Amino acid sequence: METEYKGLKYEFAAKPDFGYVTVQIPHGETLKVEAGSMAAMDTNIEMKTKFKGGFSRFLTGESIFINEFSAPNGPGEIQIAPASPGDIEHLYLENETVYLQNSAFVASAMGINVESKWQGFMKGFFSGESFFLIRCQGSGDLWFNSYGGIIPIDVDGEYVIDTGHIVGFTDGLEYSVRSVGGYKSLFFSGEGLVCQFRGKGKVWIQTRKLQPFLSWIYPFRPVKDRS
Fold first, then answer.
1. For labelling alongside 98, which of 78, 111, 155, 202 has CA 20 to 30 A away?
2. Residues 147/209, Cβ–Cβ less than 8 Å
3. Can you give the pTM of this predicted structure?
4. From CA 82, how far away is CA 163, in angstroms rounded?
5. How far is 73 from 54, CA to CA, in rounded Å?
6. Burial profile 18-41: b = 16 or more Cβ within 10 angstroms, e = fewer
7. 224: which residues sit within 8 A by CB, 6+ positions away?
8. What are residue 172's phi and psi, to 5 degrees?
9. Is the Cβ–Cβ distance between 199 and 159 less than 8 Å?
10. Per-position b or e across 97-122, b if 16+ CB within 10 A of its CB
11. Structural domains of the chain, with CATH
12. pLDDT digits (tens, 9 = 90+) for 77-132
C-alpha cells in the first residue's frame, strides 16, 4: 500500500526485517542514494557518483560515496536495498537537521545537504563503533536504515544509550560519550560505552548491535586444518 506523506512518492517492502523502498523520481528531479544501495531502476534513469567529505576524510574512514539518480527523460522509479539486514525509516525535513550514525544514511532528496561531521579523536577512538556522524540538513525526504528494528525515543531531559544502538538523533540534543562499569567492563566484556543525551528531541535506536553478533558467530568461522 502506498504511503501518504509530503515529498516524493515511495513505498516500503519487507519491513521491518529487510527494509526495501521504491521511490518515484519525477521528470527532471534527482535523488541521492548511498553508493551500492540501488537494487533496480527504470532504464530512463541516469546515475552519477558524488564523493562527499574530501580526500582527507576518506583517509580517516569518514567520507561517504553518494550516487545521484536523475530522470531527465521522464518520470521513473528506483528500488533501494540497504546493506544491513534491518528496518528502514522515512522523515520529511522542513529546514531541519538530523544526525545519523555513519552507516545509517540510505537516500535523500536534493534539498538535503549530506556531509560527515568529525566527532573528535577521543570520542571516535573509545567508542569502538566508528562513531562519527553524518549530518543531514535542509528540506525534503530522508531515508535511513538500521541493523535490526528501529525504535524512536522522545528525549526530554537526559537519556543514556549504548553507542552501538544509536541510529540517529535530532539537532538540538547535546551528547557526550562515556564509559560505564569501569575499564574491566570496557576491555574484557565489550560493554561499557554509552552516549548520554541532554535536552529535548528525538533519538532513533536499533534493536540489534553488530559487534555482539560478530562475537557470537566467531566460534563458527571456518578454520584451516594445519595438520
1. 78
2. yes
3. 0.80
4. 21
5. 31
6. ebbbbbbbeeeebbbbbeebbeeb
7. none
8. 105, -20
9. no
10. ebbbbbbbbbbbbebbebbbeebeee
11. 10-214 (3.60.160.10)
12. 999 999 888 999 999 999 999 999 888 999 999 999 998 765 543 344 334 444 56
